[in-house]
Amino acid sequence: MSEPAALLEADDVRLLVEIGFSALSRGLLAPAETIFAGVEAARPGSEAAGIGRALARLHGGAVDEAVGILRALPPSDAARAFLGLAVSRTGDRAEARAILAEVAQSAPGTPPAAMAQDLLAALA
Questions:
Q1: Which end of the chain is more exposed for a tag (fewer CB within 10 A), N or C?
Q2: Cα 86 to Cα 76: distance, rounded to the nearest angstrom
Q3: How far is CA 72 from the centre of its chain?
Q4: What share of the chain is helix, strand, coil (3-state, %, to 5)?
Q5: Is the dihedral of CA 54, 58, 64, 67 positive or negative?
Q6: How many CA atoms lie within 13 A of 55 on its CB side?
Q7: Contact by Cβ (8 Å): 102, 80
């Protein structure tokens, strides 16, 4: 029997990620978590799957779980921007600001930097 990664092509995984984020945007947290779990099974260590799972937890009120998932990801600009968002929801505004300022500074002109700058403005 084939491994899950062999069953899904990169385009299939991208489509699943898009569907997962679409489910999140509609408040369908359980289906989104299931989709992201499938992506993670097919592509272990997938950043998109980790961020998606964390956002589902964050929107479901499990803020500390979201922070844990994001802290476990490799520290990319996107993962760190979402970590800043999640940390801000714990009430630790100082740590959130430090994370977001680092992203804004290290990745100028990118979507994660724009997100970080918007979040920093909201935390001001």
A1: N
A2: 15
A3: 11
A4: 80, 0, 20
A5: positive
A6: 25
A7: yes
pLDDT tens-digit readout, 50-83: 999 999 999 999 999 999 999 999 999 999 999 9
Query: How far is residue 69 CA from its own chain's centroid?
Result: 9
Q: Please count the residues of the chain.
A: 124
CA dist., res. 15 & res. 58, Å (int): 22
Instruction: Kindly give the interhelix angle for 47-59 and 29-42, rounded to the nearest 10 degrees.
Output: 160
How much is the pTM?
Answer: 0.88
Q: How far apart are CA 32 and CA 14, in angstroms?
A: 14
Residue 85 CA to residue 119 CA, distance in Å, equals 7
Tell me, what amino acid is at 95?
Answer: E
DSSP codes, 57-115: HHHTT-HHHHHHHHHHS---HHHHHHHHHHHHHHT-HHHHHHHHHHHHHHSTTSHHHHH
- Number of Cβ within 10 Å of residue 109's Cβ equals 6
Of 11, 9, 82, the closest CA to residue 47 belongs to: 82
- What type of residue sits at position 48? A
> How is residue 83 written in tokens?
């970590």
